[in-house]
């Protein structure tokens, strides 16, 4: 059984703190990234990671455990069908917290917590091969583009010369 938080809580009571964290996790899964205070971001991260780990298992028992925290059925469905398969080969570290500076009104330190998008660094060969293959055709298109621009410029020059000759007549 989890130990209750000692000292000040995010929302006042333990129940309010639990609701705040559940709502933050729901918003994180729904939108992929949320902006909140650093304290709330640090507190929601372990909860979100545990929920993703349960969703990766994908069985009915874990779906019901996740549904206790995430009350929105649509978000639970998205977590199990879209988010969990994306992290299938990742053993953890599904979220990233980036500090963005203080909030304007009360100078509270703010942060962005987001779901990680890139693949693990364990497969860099495949990840590097794909962009290299895409860069080669792009380079070929760039070499062709100036040639067409020069052709267009030459056509314009010929049109200008023809117009000038027409004016002289």
Automatic annotation (TrEMBL):
Keyword entries, A-Z: Ribonucleoprotein, Ribosomal protein
Segments of skewed composition (Basic and acidic residues): 160-169
Ranges of compositional bias, category Low complexity: 123-151
Region spans: Disordered: 121-169
Keyword Metal-binding: no
GO cellular component: cytosolic large ribosomal subunit
Pfam families membership: Ribosomal_L17
Molecular-function annotations in GO: structural constituent of ribosome
A biological-process GO annotation: translation
NCBIfam families: L17
Known partners and oligomeric status: Part of the 50S ribosomal subunit. Contacts protein L32.
Family classification: Belongs to the bacterial ribosomal protein bL17 family.
Protein name, as recorded: Large ribosomal subunit protein bL17
Lineage start: Bacteria, Bacillati, Actinomycetota, Actinomycetes, Streptosporangiales
């Amino acid at each position: 059984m989890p130990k209750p938080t000692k000292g000040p809580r995010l929302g006042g009571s333990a129940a309010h703190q639990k609701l705040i964290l559940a709502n933050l996790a729901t918003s994180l899964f729904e939108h992929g990234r949320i902006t909140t205070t650093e304290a709330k971001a640090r507190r929601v991260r372990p909860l979100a990671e545990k929920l993703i780990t349960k969703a990766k298992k994908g069985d009915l028992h874990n779906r019901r455990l996740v549904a206790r925290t995430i009350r929105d059925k649509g978000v639970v469905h998205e977590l199990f069908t879209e988010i969990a398969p994306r992290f299938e080969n990742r053993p953890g570290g599904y979220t990233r917290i980036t500090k963005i500076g203080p909030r304007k009104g009360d100078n509270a330190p703010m942060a962005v917590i987001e779901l990680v998008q890139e693949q693990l660094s364990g497969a860099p060969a495949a990840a590097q091969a794909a962009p290299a293959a895409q860069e080669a055709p792009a380079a070929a298109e760039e070499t062709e583009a100036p040639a067409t621009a020069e052709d267009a410029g030459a056509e314009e020059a010929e049109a200008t010369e023809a117009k000038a000759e027409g004016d002289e007549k």
